[in-house]
Amino acid sequence: MTIKEAHVSDLMAELRAIPEASLVRLHTYYRVTRQALDEGQTTISSEEIAAASGNTAAQVRKDLSYVGQLGRPGIGYEVLPLAATLEEFLGLANDKEAVLVGAGRLGMALAAFSGFARYGLRIIALFDTDPAKAGWLVDDKPVFPLEKMADLVRRLHVQIGIITVPAEAAQQVANEMVAAGIIAIWNFAPCKLSLPDNILVYNEDLASRLATLAYYIRGRSLAARLQASKPANLAPQETADVSTATL
Fold first, then answer.
1. What is the largest CA-CA distance in the chain?
2. 3-89: which CATH number, 3.30.1360.200, 2.70.70.10, 1.10.10.10, 2.40.50.100?
3. Could you tell me the pTM of the whole model?
4. For the residues 91-112, what does the mean pLDDT come to?
């Protein structure tokens, strides 16, 4: 292992030491802080952040401790420095270019989603194996044949790849991305990828999330039916009448 590879490995291990749930919450805290900044607020407490994000103040303080010692007892957090620190820590300060493979409905929807810009993500091109899609524009982003991906990734030093292909094609696409220089992959294919440890992979399993929602909705519906099937409480007078009748 070279010195550079060892440094990258150490950095990846440090990043993975932060719980994924904490990273998700830190993004929420960033949105809360940005809103406070837009409203002219100069300081914000962990209680205010907790109330706006649906967490506890203790959880907020614990999550923010991964970023650094930012708050002051009795005062809270200065909004501007907190927003700037979170922006830098989360990698939102600079634009990050990404390529997307799989110009189907999901891929095109992601490419056209304007909300990524707030987080510094910019999808610059789509790739697909269907020759009929070559030359399409998705929200002004071109669709190229898949065989052109590696060259574009190398030339533009793109580091993020998004996969929206069927499960059976995902591993091969991921391998080609890594060979081209991609170091982070956002995988929407319903399968687990086998890649080197220094490649960051985030699996977005939409079917699993849908199954979780369906299970939750089923539970709520069942609870509602059980509640509706319970006999109504008898009024006090009705209860007395029934008791008397059984004597």
1. 93
2. 1.10.10.10
3. 0.66
4. 90
